Amino acid sequence: MSFPSTLTEAMSPTAEPKGDLWAKLSEVDRSMKVLGVFFIVCGLLWLMLGTVFALVASIKFHNVDFLGDSEFWTWGRVRSAHLNAMIYGWAFNASFAVAPWIMARLCRTRVRFTNIFLFGGIFWNIGVAIGVYGILAGHKVGVEWLEFPAYVTPIIAIAFAFIGVWVILLFRWRQTGHVYVSQWYFLAAFFWLPWLYAMAQIMIVFEPARGVVQALTNWWFAHNVLGLWLTPIAVGAAYYLIPKVLGRPIYSYYLSVIGFWALALFYNWAGVHHLIGGPVPAWVISAGTVASVMMVIPVIVVAINHHMTVVGLHREGWASPTIRFVVFGAINYTAVSLLGSAMALRSVNEITHFTHFTVGHAHHGVYSFFTMIMFGGIYYMLPRLLKREWPSAMLISVHWWTTAVGVTLMVVVLSIGGFVQGMQLNAIDPETETAAFEFMEVMRNMIPYTVMRSMTGVLITIGHVAFFINIVWMLLQRAAKGSDSKPTLLTPGA
Amino acid sequence: MRSLPLLFLGVFFTIASSWVGIVLVSNIQLGGLEPATPELTDAEGNPIAGVFFEDPETGEMRLGLNQEGVEAWPVQLVGAAQRGKRVYEQMGCLYCHSQQVRRQGFGSDFERGWGERQSVARDYIHQERVMLGTMRTGPDLANVGLRYSELWQHQHLFNPQITSPGSIMPRYAFLYEVREISESRGPSPNAIEIPGDFHPGPGELEVIPTQRARDLVAYLMNLRQDYDLPEMRREQ
Q1: Contacts of B173 in chain A (CB under 8 A)
Q2: Which site among B137, B158, B167 would you substitute to test the A interface, given the most A Cβ atoms closer than 10 Å to its Cβ?
Q3: What domain range is A56 assigned to?
Q4: Domain containing residue B192: CATH number
Q5: How far is B213 from chain A (nearest CA, A)?
Q6: Scanning every residue of chain B, which has its alpha carbon at the shortest distance from the alpha carbon of A261?
Q7: Using the beta-carbon criterion (under 8 Å), do A268 and B118 form an inter-chain contact?
Q8: Is A208 an interface residue toward B (CB < 8 Å)?
Q9: Angle, helices B211-221/B150-158, rounded to nearest 10 degrees
Q10: Distance (Å, rounded) from C-alpha A19 to C-alpha B40?
């Protein structure tokens, strides 16, 4: 057995001798098969349902009469159903599929007690289903990102407790001495989320804190679901997938340490920038703004680390569906975070706050960054779980182009629209000292942008349908004969 | 990284820092806010500017006291208005309408007539659910109770095109009952006047607000931050 020559190599998931590693990983994959497929399928179903809600909500922005007489489908509920189905349905299921699987592979261990995890997963999805129905039925809680009716909270909490405990146990059983950077991110995320959720539920829903302390807790929670759950899951997955697929160790161990601790230190303070200008103490806003700007450090560090790992291997990367999606996500992590830091500045926020710009930014983060990395993770993971390849490279190609182009256009449209909206809302006629644009005029001026947003949404929907067909096709397919099956790669032109 | 205890401690202390900083400290600062009279007084009953006064004996800064015999604000919502808040929440109004007036010079909230003063933390102390909002697809509602009549609110909810042509607000016609005018009793006194083009059947049908519509309008009519608070007097 040859020993890795550098610390960096030792940390890398590609470092161990091939034969031995393959045997171990193959065993991990076998033991994770049911779990992985369960969470991917659940996530996929939520993704499709969330897409339907998204289209309905988007169309209502320019066609108010669309489903206009239905209380169940009224805009204020469909919007929340979309957000919650996408976050707690799609994003969490995707996280539960990808992160523990990578964790198990990095721990090189035999996976045990999978029933605990499965049990938690089933409960989780029952909770989300009741919650989404409760929102549409009118039992929602009027707090952004916490809309599930209060009776769903115990189900979600118990489900996550099972899942979280199992992931920690998995880590305890690890057989390797080194703890790879992805594992830090996953462990931290599985520790942070229950704290966030418990505090938010207690201080907002069950024992409401006084006045605007609720709003501060709300944005501490909501922004941290992104910053301390989705971000570490996706960044951790990218740290695993990029070196793994390209067969090259991560560029710098030391940069990954700085990136991790800077994220842990700064991200959790950033959320209150959603309340700039609001009735909260100025010092909280200043602290949030400082933390938001400090996020530049971990973002740049991670960007350098990922970029230097990929550099020179673009041709190989382009052929791999996994790398296409993951690198797209990683690039957008840099872009969305730097934009977010800029948006936290009071002078910029004065324009972008209360507009479509923020909506575009949210999709930039959750879709262009997080969701695309999860797509990449699933493209890598599912063939290894099922021991068969993706049936159609063409469908992968459709999925890639529609989602990558669609979400990029959506973010651009919403950012331009939101900027125009913010400028027009704030404009003051110097002579009369009144608003330069009537409110209705600003509202009307936004309609072309919301029409374009719906069109980009249709494009993304096509991609999701392609993804759905490919997965269902793959699940229904028979196992590949022999061991000569080749990975489904994309041709340079596709 | 080999030192797992260090990892766990770091992970714990980072989140603990923001929880203490953002949530706990602001709760210490704001959690004790009570309704206040427009002007506060020192221990001897002399009016003070702002919220704090200096104790002449110890030199400490102390919170001012409410004036006696003067109404303290804000007041709690009761009855229909309180129930209406729940309807506001269920319909998801907060995703398009904020309830916070920003200071003059930051945005155009004053120029749009959304408020005469900036919203402050004390305005929200009675609210079990604070819905400051993060989007202004529609106008700010912090003072909407001062701007329109009940009839306007009902017409606007029944079909926003009646009062605001071109609006993209959804109609909440499902909060209203459209029924035949009773032949024996004649038109109901509760019926909402709906202009001809939008009326489902003038002369034969009438539009009656359900309990939820009346509650929601009662809530909207109670949205106002026009009282003075001592925070406003800081600069005098």
Answers
A1: 68-69
A2: B137
A3: 24-178
A4: 1.10.760.10
A5: 13
A6: B10
A7: no
A8: yes
A9: 130
A10: 79
Torsion, Cα B23 B28 B32 B38, to 10 degrees, reads -90
Largest distance between two CA atoms of chain A: 82
Residue B189, in any domain of the structure = yes
As beta bridge partners, residue B40 has B48, B66
CA–CA distance from A65 to each of A73, A82, B171, B207 (Å)? 11, 19, 8, 19
Would you say residue A221 lies in a domain? no
* The pLDDT value given to residue A273: 95
Are residue B103 and residue B199 in the same domain, yes or no? yes
Q: What is the pLDDT of residues B94-118, one digit of tens each?
A: 999 999 999 999 999 999 999 999 9
Give yes or no for B121 touching A (CB within 8 A): yes
Low-confidence ranges of chain B (pLDDT < 70): 1-2, 233-236
Split at pLDDT 50, 70, 90, the class of A176 is confident
- Spatial distance between the Cα atoms of A210 and A27, rounded to a whole number of angstroms: 53
Residues on chain B touching A141 (C-beta within 8 angstroms): 89, 129
Task: Kindly state whether residues B61 and B93 are assigned to the same domain.
Answer: no
Fill in the DSSP letter of residue B146. Answer: G
Please state the rounded mean pLDDT for residues A407-423: 98
* A262 vs B contacts (CB less than 8 Å): none
User: Is the pLDDT at A410 greater than 90, yes or no?
Assistant: yes
Peptide bond connecting A391 to the previous residue in cis, omega within 30 degrees of 0:
no
Q: Counting Cβ atoms within 10 Å, is residue B29 exposed (0-12), middle (13-18) or buried (19+)?
A: middle
**Are B115 and B215 found together in one domain?**
yes
Q: Is residue B231 part of a domain?
A: no
Residue A440: list chain B partners with CB under 8 A: 164, 166-167
Question: Is B173 contained in some domain?
Answer: yes
| Residue B186 CA neighbour count, 13 Å, CB half | 1
Find, in chain A, the residue whose alpha carbon is nearest to that of B13: A265
Using a CB-CB distance cutoff of 8 angstroms, which residues of chain B are in contact with residue A288? 22
Q: How far is residue A94's CA from residue A230's CA, in Å, rounded to a whole number?
A: 10
Phi then psi dihedrals of residue B66, to 5 deg: -65, 145
Identify whether B232 is part of a domain: no
Higher pLDDT, A469 or A481: A469
Residues B111 and B212 in one domain: yes
Q: How many domains does chain A have?
A: 1
Residues B163 and B99 in one domain: yes
Looking at the structure of chain B, the number of domains it has is 3
Q: Do B19 and B42 reside in the same domain of the chain?
A: no
The whole domain housing B93 covers 79-221
Q: What is the pLDDT of residues A144-161, one digit of tens each?
A: 999 999 999 999 999 999
* Residue A135, in any domain of the structure: yes
* Distance (Å, whole) CA A378 – CA A474: 12
Considering the domain architecture, whether residues B108 and B57 belong to the same structural domain is answered as no
Per-residue DSSP letter, B204: T
**Does residue A13 carry a pLDDT above 70?**
no
Which pLDDT belongs to residue A5?
43
Q: What is the per-residue pLDDT for A10? A: 45
Residue A493 banded pLDDT, cuts 50, 70, 90: low
The pLDDT, as a whole number, for residue A19 is: 66
Q: What is the mean pLDDT of chain A?
A: 92
In a shared domain, residues B205 and B124: yes
Residue A421 region by backbone torsions, left for phi larger than 0, else alpha for psi between -120 and 50, else beta: alpha
